[in-house]
Design brief:
Number of helices: 26
Strand order of the largest sheet: 2-1-6-3-4-5
Helix content: 40-55%
Distance between the termini: 24 Å
Radius of gyration: 22 Å
Oligomer: single chain
Length: 617
């Protein structure tokens, strides 16, 4: 392939490659086509993985790549732009894994002059990588290894300054817990499919980033003008004041009313103790707010938890560490959440493995006693998981799929995941569209790619029609294809109704490249299809089973609330999945058709996929 390298505005056009084994680094330009066809963030990350990651490697081996990637909107003066993507081959799922994280590290990476940093190899001992513009240093981290994320960042800020962008892992990442995340700023967390474990496998304790350059914009004046208007539109929104009171915590009451609040390991969609963990209870305990850089609608609501320490709450961690494990005391939920952030554990997956453990204990599938709502037992389990210090901790550190495969005894029937990633906090016994969104999410079951459930509940929630599949794809394009590649937070659009029309304009002013929605949707489809190709390559094949929802939603109906008796219908779900495949241009196995790959300029994957699965036309 002959690649063309051209200076572009809006992008830096450079990747920083860091070899931890050799403690060496180099800059490299990447092709013009990668910027135009993938924009940045997730798009750039998956293109790098396809091109440079050897097929079939162990995700926790030195050969795996760990990527930090930003986009042309990252860090600009526009709402909630302080985001970056962390990506790798996932140790939890075995496929493509990523997450976004709000951090000053994202802004500083843009200022340092890079669109991505790629780590490979493994340091012989714990290390902090320090990136200051074009200079890279390797600081020994023996003194930091074993520390929690809060203490690690505190010490590094003392050393490198309060303005430094810092990403770190806690003991969970060091011990390669398969759902360990990357942490920043005492509560920003990203990389649910085990990105923290990948850092740990490389002995990479932290990354410190400081930059002094500019953003290389095409029309900085127009970017600033449009960004300022967007900031004002956020504040003027009718829903802004209530958002600033409760943030995502408002979802607890909505989810209870809609029968989608996960309770008792997703057995039910309602929880009798929901008032003890809802947004109004949070308001009673609230002591402040914090959020990501460049954000004027911060989502982190802080309370004093049951240990009189500060815990930052949002809906996902409260539902998964509250109703899903039968715990109705928000201050105690806060402790579990803070402990997870300090240890570097994903709170969603943690709530799922704790729920699975309580049910496995109840059914005597494991030789361990933990009951629903048993705060002390759950507290102990969180630490045992992070340190892998006991048999049960080591088991649960594998995630629900890994744990159930080891235990057997039908325990996989209540392991709530898709593709190995634990489902986030929406029960889908009576929400087939959201079940489809989880099952077809490119990283495994995560709501960030297509939060279709509010639309579904407000329309015809029990339908399995083609329009519902189309809505899932529409949201996947916007949420997972575009926001993850710009890179910017979707909350201004989702939560306070900021017009989506800002984004193609801002992208055009930043880069000088004319983008409209047709072009952007094509980019999003290209990214999703390349991620699917990566999964097929790494799995060595494909079947519809990869796109199925958790068994529980198909076999066990709800027994409580207004929707008691509801469950997903397998035949209807398969029909919905057929609609989804057809609309995406994939065959009835979920494999992209040759014509789709060619239309999306993914010709470079054709030969390899054809050898593995045999492509249809």
């Amino acid at each position: 392939m002959r690649w063309v390298y051209i200076e572009l505005k809006g992008w830096h056009g450079k990747i920083l490659w860091i070899d931890l084994s050799k403690r060496e680094y180099k800059e490299a330009r990447y092709p013009l086509e990668w910027a135009m066809d993938y924009i940045g963030g997730r798009g750039l990350a998956v293109r790098i993985l396809w091109e440079y990651l050897p097929r079939g490697i162990d995700p926790l081996s030195p050969e795996n790549l760990f990527i930090l990637a930003v986009g042309p909107l990252t860090g600009l003066t526009l709402p909630s732009s302080g985001k970056m993507v962390v990506a790798s081959k996932s140790p939890l799922t075995g496929g493509y894994g990523d997450g976004n994280i709000g951090s000053w590290a994202a802004v500083e990476l843009r200022r340092a002059g890079y669109d991505a940093v790629v780590f490979k190899g493994r340091s012989s001992k714990p290390v902090v990588t320090v990136i200051e513009d074009s200079k890279v240093e390797f600081r020994d981290a023996d003194d930091l290894w074993g520390l929690d994320t809060w203490e690690t960042e505190r010490r590094l800020k003392e050393e490198y300054g309060k303005q430094a962008g810092i990403l770190e892992i806690g003991p969970a990442g060091e011990n390669r817990v398969r759902f360990a995340t990357v942490i920043s700023q005492e509560g920003r967390s990203g990389g649910r499919p085990g990105m923290g474990a990948v850092m740990g496998s490389k002995n990479l304790k932290a990354v410190v980033i400081r930059g002094t350059g500019d953003f290389n914009l095409f029309d900085p004046k127009r970017v600033k003008e449009e960004g300022s208007k967007a900031y004002m539109d956020v504040v003027r929104s009718k829903s802004y004041k209530f958002w600033m009171r409760q943030g995502t915590m408002m979802t607890v009451d909505w989810a209870q009313e809609a029968s989608v609040l996960p309770a008792y390991n997703f057995r039910e969609g309602v929880f009798e103790g929901f008032k003890g963990i809802d947004g109004y209870r949070m308001e009673e305990l609230k002591i402040g707010q914090r959020g990501c850089p460049k954000c004027n609608m911060v989502c982190g609501n802080m309370i004093k938890d049951a240990e009189d320490q500060v815990s930052e709450l949002d809906y996902e961690n409260v539902a998964m560490l509250g109703s899903n494990i039968g715990l109705d005391d928000l201050r105690r939920v806060g402790v579990l959440n803070r402990l997870a952030d300090m240890l570097g554990l994903d709170t969603i997956s943690l709530g799922s493995v704790l729920g699975w453990a309580a049910e496995a204990s109840e059914k005597k599938h494991i030789d361990y006693k933990v009951e629903w709502g048993d705060y002390e037992a759950f507290y102990s389990l969180v630490k045992e998981i992070a340190y892998r210090e006991t048999g049960i901790g080591n088991l649960l550190a594998e995630g629900v799929r890994g744990a159930c495969l080891k235990v057997g005894k039908d325990s996989c029937d209540y392991a709530i995941h898709a593709k190995g990633l634990e489902v986030s906090a929406y029960d889908c016994h009576a929400a087939p569209g959201m079940a489809l969104a989880y099952a077809t999410s490119p990283i495994g079951a995560h709501h960030k790619d297509a939060w279709v459930i509010s639309w579904e509940v407000a329309t015809n929630r029990f339908s399995y029609d083609r329009g519902k599949a189309a809505k899932v794809i529409e949201l996947q394009r916007i949420r997972g294809g575009l926001f993850e590649s710009f890179v910017a937070c979707r909350f201004p659009w989702v939560e306070v109704g900021l017009s989506l029309d800002y984004y193609p304009k801002l992208l055009t002013y930043a880069t000088g490249v004319k983008y409209d929605w047709n072009k952007l949707y094509e980019v999003a489809d290209r990214i999703y299809t390349l991620i699917r190709a990566f999964w097929i390559r790494e799995a060595g094949g494909w079947s519809r089973d990869y796109d199925m929802p958790p068994v529980r939603w198909l076999k066990e109906p709800l027994t409580k609330g207004p929707l008691a008796g509801a469950r997903l219908d397998i035949d209807s779900y398969n029909s919905l999945l057929n609609h989804y495949y057809d609309l995406r241009g994939w065959d009835n196995r979920g494999v992209p058709r040759r014509s789709t790959l060619e239309r999306l300029k993914l010709d470079f994957v054709v030969n390899e996929l054809d050898k593995i699965v045999g492509l249809t036309e």
